[in-house]
């Protein structure tokens, strides 16, 4: 972009991101023909692949990483694991990857598979009134109808994610007096139908507040079921009591050995107090370290630099992760600062097409691209590091360029793309040509 152009860089990124996202919402996209297929693949994922391009190291000029070195390899998988990585065997009887780049399968770590319009008729977002509580009122009105075919729509959305290279998701699922446990049960049916091709962990999510609509009995029941995290949303704005809501959430998680993942949109004083109080509770209960997350956490983007550093250090020490949907415009999250202090940063699409948002593309690689643009991660090295946002922190090369993935024993979850290296894949948002989950070709 010419420096003299009147449009700002952030505005350009924002507009182009929306445009890219809006073009990909095609319910039947999973029916696209993969670049290879093997009808003889076994049910236990016993497969072999040849001509697989893997990253092997960095190439330096005057101390700077200027390109990424790759080579062709031969792989074998069995029982969902990678069992062999060796020099290429071009004449072997194996699936021919045709020199495509192999990367770790992508992971969408914040999405709502249980409530979506995707796969159904188009609906734009309605005019919002009354803030989050106004949206709660809207949900109470429309959820019964949405739940009628929510299993089918969840399956369609899973297929969209697979077409974008994602084989794992952390899905929040409504637990509140309107849905009760129906939303959870419907989603579990969809996941059961997809269990051979897709994995998920679930967050019991009191979208309508813990106490605002008395979701307590339903959360307690859900905690006994097959879920992984206890969720929450804006304790002060919705429930009017930070300590009461966080205390309940923490105790429920401890009692049932679950993690915690709380939506926090509040960007003012109440948001900061919520973060600080959660940090204190996790430090008091070390069993929650590494199992606690704040989704969105917009308040971090509103703090001055010194306070951002302070909070990032505290979050890192408490091992509390941040799941960011990479907001842009005037609200830029301090992701580089979080990385600096060892905070786990994850991302997800959040909404695909629903009553909250209709711009989700299903691609977390696009999220990594957007992050790279926003923070100026334009060099070969920084672009390659940006891939970890799409893979939940799995990278083929470590920071010194030493190959660390794939190794024998790793999960056989990977994607093939038409790209020369991970830096190009991030920068160009390279198309996913095929997805392998537990050693089986699923897209």
From TrEMBL:
Source organism, top-level taxon: Bacteria
Amidohydrolase domain location: 248-443
Signal peptide (residue range): none
Molecular-function annotations in GO: hydrolase activity, acting on carbon-nitrogen (but not peptide) bonds, in cyclic amidines
PANTHER family: BLL3847 PROTEIN, CYTOSINE DEAMINASE
Protein name (record): Deaminase
Organism: Chryseobacterium soli
């Amino acid at each position: 972009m010419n420096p003299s152009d009147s449009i700002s860089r952030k505005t350009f990124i924002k507009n182009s991101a929306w445009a890219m996202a809006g073009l990909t919402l095609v319910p039947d996209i999973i029916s696209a023909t993969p670049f290879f297929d093997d009808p003889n693949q076994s049910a236990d994922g016993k497969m072999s692949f040849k001509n697989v391009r893997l990253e092997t190291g960095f190439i330096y000029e005057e101390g700077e990483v200027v390109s990424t070195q790759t080579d062709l390899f031969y792989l074998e998988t069995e029982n969902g694991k990678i069992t062999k990585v060796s020099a290429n065997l071009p004449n072997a009887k194996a699936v021919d990857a045709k020199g495509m780049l192999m990367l770790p399968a992508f992971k969408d770590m914040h999405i709502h598979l249980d409530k979506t319009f995707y796969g159904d008729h188009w609906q734009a977002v309605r005019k919002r009134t009354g803030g989050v509580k106004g949206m709660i009122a809207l949900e109470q009105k429309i959820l019964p109808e949405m739940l009628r075919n929510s299993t089918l729509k969840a399956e369609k959305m899973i297929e969209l994610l697979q077409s974008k290279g994602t084989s794992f998701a952390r899905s929040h699922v409504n637990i509140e007096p309107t849905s009760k446990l129906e939303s959870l049960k419907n989603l579990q049916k969809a996941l059961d139908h997809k269990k051979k091709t897709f994995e998920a962990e679930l967050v019991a999510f009191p979208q309508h507040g813990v106490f605002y609509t008395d979701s307590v009995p339903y959360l307690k029941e859900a905690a006994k079921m097959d879920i992984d995290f206890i969720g929450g949303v804006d304790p002060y704005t919705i429930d009017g009591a930070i300590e009461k809501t966080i205390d309940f959430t923490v105790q429920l998680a401890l009692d049932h050995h679950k993690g915690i993942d709380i939506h926090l949109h509040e960007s003012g004083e109440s948001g900061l107090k919520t973060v600080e109080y959660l940090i204190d509770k996790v430090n008091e209960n070390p069993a929650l370290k590494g199992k606690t997350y704040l989704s969105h956490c917009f308040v971090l983007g509103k703090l001055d630099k010194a306070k951002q550093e302070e909070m990032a250090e505290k979050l890192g020490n408490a091992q509390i992760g941040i799941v960011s949907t990479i907001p842009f415009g005037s609200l830029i999250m301090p992701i580089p600062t979080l990385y600096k202090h060892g905070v786990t940063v994850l991302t997800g699409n959040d909404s695909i097409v629903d009553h909250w948002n209709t711009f989700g593309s299903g691609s977390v690689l696009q999220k990594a691209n957007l992050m790279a643009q926003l923070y100026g991660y334009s060099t070969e090295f920084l672009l390659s590091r940006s891939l970890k946002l799409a893979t939940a922190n799995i990278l083929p090369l470590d920071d010194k360029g030493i190959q660390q993935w794939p190794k024998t024993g790793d999960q056989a979850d990977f994607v093939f793309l038409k790209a020369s290296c991970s830096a190009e894949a991030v920068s160009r948002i390279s198309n996913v040509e095929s997805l392998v989950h537990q050693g089986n070709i699923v897209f």
